Amino acid sequence: MATTHLNFLNSFLTVLNSSIGVRKGLPNTQRKKDAGKKTLVLDLDETLIHSESSNHMISKPKNSVSISWKNSSNNSQESAYTRLRPSVFKFLALATELFEVVLFTASMPQYAKQIVKLLDRSGYHFYLLTRND
């Protein structure tokens, strides 16, 4: 079943890459380790992780990690509890073998960088696109 999904994804990305051909927000060329690979853009929030603001929480949710960052728009310290989707590390390991992986979020860059630190424990060095890119 996984092979069927990968074949479908590969076909879809071939069409997508050939019709778009623009790397907006990314370097014009791929890194050496990703040369020739198709680009897979993954949304962080609700796809790879789930985060909830810790401001209104009484206790830390089960199986969550606490993250914090400085909000540059108002200089406040923000925090959230984040849960990783099941098998997210296995998925990212496989995805980075097959694709150039780009992580996207509509959230603030400071928050996104904390999430990428959490997800990139194997040193994949994902590209990150945020609402500011």
Low-pLDDT runs of 5+ residues are: none
Q: Sheet bearing the most strands, described? A: 3 strands, parallel
- 3D shape: globular
Radius of gyration: 16 Å
> Percent helix among the residues?
25-40%
Q: Can you say what the CATH homologous superfamily is?
A: HAD superfamily/HAD-like
**Which CATH class is shown?**
Alpha Beta
The sequence of SSEs as H and E is: HEEEEHEHE
CATH architecture assignment: 3-Layer(aba) Sandwich
Mean of all residue-level pLDDT scores: 79
| Classification by helices and strands | alpha/beta
Alpha plus pi helix count: 3
CATH-assigned fold name? Rossmann fold
Order of strands side by side in the largest beta sheet? 1-5-6
| Terminal residue distance | 35 Å
Number of strands: 6
User: What share of residues are in beta strands?
Assistant: 25-35%
**Overall structural domain count:** 1
Q: What this model shows, in words?
A:
- By secondary structure, this protein is α/β, with parallel strands linked by helices.
- It has one domain (24-129): 3-Layer(aba) Sandwich (Rossmann fold).
- It has helices spanning 2-20, 88-98, 109-119, and strands at residues 38-43, 49-53, 65-71, 76-84, 99-104, 127-129.
- The protein has a three-stranded parallel beta sheet. Strands 2-4-3 form a three-stranded antiparallel beta sheet, with helices on one face.
